[in-house]
Write a structure and sequence with these properties.
The strands form 2 sheets. This protein has a 7-stranded parallel β-sheet with strand order 3-2-1-4-7-8-9, with helices on both faces. Strands 5-6 form a two-stranded antiparallel sheet. It is globular. The protein is built from 7 helices and 9 strands, in the order E-H-E-H-E-H-E-E-E-H-H-E-H-E-H-E. It is α/β, with parallel strands linked by helices and 225 residues long. The longest helix is centred in the middle third of the chain and has 21 residues.
């Protein structure tokens, strides 16, 4: 049985990926900041463990590493994300911009590095960081500045990690989930979370080391940088 660790698993795409992974017979270590309030997550059936994790906090990350001990991880999905409420050019909340970078760009690196030794225990280690087409330099827009810039930074950070860890046999990819009907994506989005999650899990399942460093969408198509 393969083991997946999914961050930000208490709602949206993270919750749906957890649900579907369990239905596929996978073992899932699901994390969120406050498990006591994650009632939908806790109600899922299957080989599920729910743990507290603040991806922006070193102490919280290391505490989870210690708690999980020698568990072998096959897949790490860096799904936790943040979209600032004020990020227009003439109405920027700079503290939220910093938070955007902390959650969207720095945290995937922090969590990946923290669990690298557990991923190396797997013969098919994969790290999938949920990015966005809004982080593409070819699709730049004038809105959502903090979100766009933090996702672009995440792409570069993960691509760098892919180059560093290819000799260690760890595949690292960035995935665009599509425009999804979540709290972040809004009700006008094109995809339901179940559609996005199914596509993402299918792509992740098929990743090999030859894919490392790629930026793909939920259907497995290459995304422009």
């Amino acid at each position: 049985m393969q083991t997946y660790l999914i961050t930000g698993a208490n709602r949206g795409i993270g919750l749906e990926m957890t649900r579907q992974a369990l239905e596929l017979g996978l073992r899932v270590i699901a994390t969120c900041r406050d498990p006591s309030s994650a009632t939908e997550l806790a109600a899922l059936d299957g080989a599920l463990e729910v743990h507290a994790l603040d991806v922006t906090d070193d102490a919280s990350t290391q505490a989870l590493v210690k708690k999980l001990g020698t568990v072998k991880l096959d897949v790490l999905i860096n799904n936790a994300g943040y979209m600032a409420s004020q990020q227009a050019i003439d109405d920027m909340d700079y503290e939220q911009w910093v938070t955007s970078f902390d959650v969207n760009a720095i945290a995937p690196w922090r969590v990946s590095v923290a669990f690298a030794h557990r991923l190396q225990a797997s013969s098919s280690a994969r790290i999938a960081t949920i990015s966005s087409q809004m982080g593409s330099m070819e699709r730049a827009g004038s809105d959502r500045v903090a979100y766009r810039s933090s996702k672009a930074a995440a792409n570069m950070a993960m691509r760098t990690l892919a180059l560093e860890w290819e000799p260690r046999g760890i595949t690292v990819c960035m995935l665009h989930p599509g425009w999804v009907k979540t709290d972040m994506g809004g009700s006008n989005a094109a995809l339901d979370p179940s559609e996005s999650a199914a596509g993402l899990l299918d792509v992740i399942d098929g990743l090999t080391l030859k894919d490392t460093g790629r930026f793909l969408d939920h259907a497995g198509k290459s995304m422009p940088w």
